[in-house]
Amino acid sequence: MFLGNGGINTPELAKKMIEETGCQGVGLARGLYGKPWLFKQCKAYFRRYKYQELSYPEIKKVMLKHAKLIEKNNQNFKELRKHLVWYVKNWPNARELRSKLVAVENFDNLKQILKDISF
Fold it and tell me: If you average pLDDT over residues 26-54, what whole number do you get?
């Protein structure tokens, strides 16, 4: 089995990789940073279903769920910071938001930061 990878961060790019290279699958790797739902989108796209982009409020919910899992498993919350900045990569005011997210200390702190964001 041959896998294609590199720069795949949308279902369309995954399909293009397969069509252009003849590989049997793709590795999403960094394409998943800030987009863990990409698996689900690719699955829908390859089954010829329409996939949905997540709204900002939906992404905020994913961020909180991610943080809750870190907290629940007693993992170092500081490790989450690098993932949080990926979630907001293309958001309005992303630069200001990233500066807050890299200083997040706990779940409640993150919850307050996200609560203060309006779109």
Answer: 93
Spell out the domain ranges in the chain: 3-46, 56-115
Token readout for 44 is 């829908």
Direct distance between the N- and C-terminal alpha carbons of the chain, in angstroms, rounded to an integer: 44
Please give the C-alpha separations between residue 72 and each of 9, 15, 66, 75, in angstroms, as whole numbers: 29, 36, 10, 8
Q: How confident is the model at residue 76 (pLDDT cuts 50, 70, 90)?
A: confident
Phi, psi of 14 (to 5 degrees): -65, -45
Q: What share of the chain is helix, strand, coil (3-state, %, to 5)?
A: 55, 5, 40
The pTM (predicted TM-score) of the whole model is 0.85
Write out the DSSP string of 12-36.
Answer: HHHHHHHHHH--SEEE-GGGGTT-T
